[in-house]
Amino acid sequence: MSNQAKIESTIKMLALAAAQIEATMIESGNSVSALSNSFSTIAEKFHHLDDHNDDTVISLTTEDFQALRSKINEAIIAMQFYDRMTQRLHHINEGLSATSSLLESSTSTPESDWVKLQETIKSRYTMESEREMFEQIIAGSPLKEALASFKNSSSTFNNQEEIELF
Q1: Considering the domain boundaries, does residue 154 fall inside one?
Q2: Is residue 112 one of the residues assigned to a domain?
Q3: Which one of 61, 79, 86, 89 has the fewest beta carbons within 10 angstroms of its own beta carbon?
Q4: What is the spatial distance between Cα 163 and Cα 67, in angstroms, rounded to a whole number?
Q5: Cα–Cα distance between 40 and 32 in angstroms, integer?
Q6: What domain count does the chain have?
């Protein structure tokens, strides 16, 4: 593998790591905002109940109960950001370590070793958003384009009530 090809492969791997870090920060920020919103709403509902507690029986309307349940579910889903964040950071660390090892291994690394490294990194991804970003970066998409694509898929994911399993 020529030095130029080695440099290009290294740049792609570094761009991938940068994109993953940025994506992790975006998703974590969205989740923290959702948590904050959910807990604020829950606190307001309980404060409202407390204001009306004059030693009489407190009753929740069906609407109040459903709103509280909804906000609690949103908070639980949003708290999963920590698991996604640590998983992504672990993948970034593994990818950078493997890239570093490959660079240190010899002065002329065969292209097949770079392809194998990329396949190994991709195989460790469990989240579809990671695999999509990987494909875009390796295909040569600019970092900003890959992040814009992630933001679109991330906002779609954050508006769903389903949990992404990983």
Answers
A1: yes
A2: yes
A3: 61
A4: 19
A5: 12
A6: 1
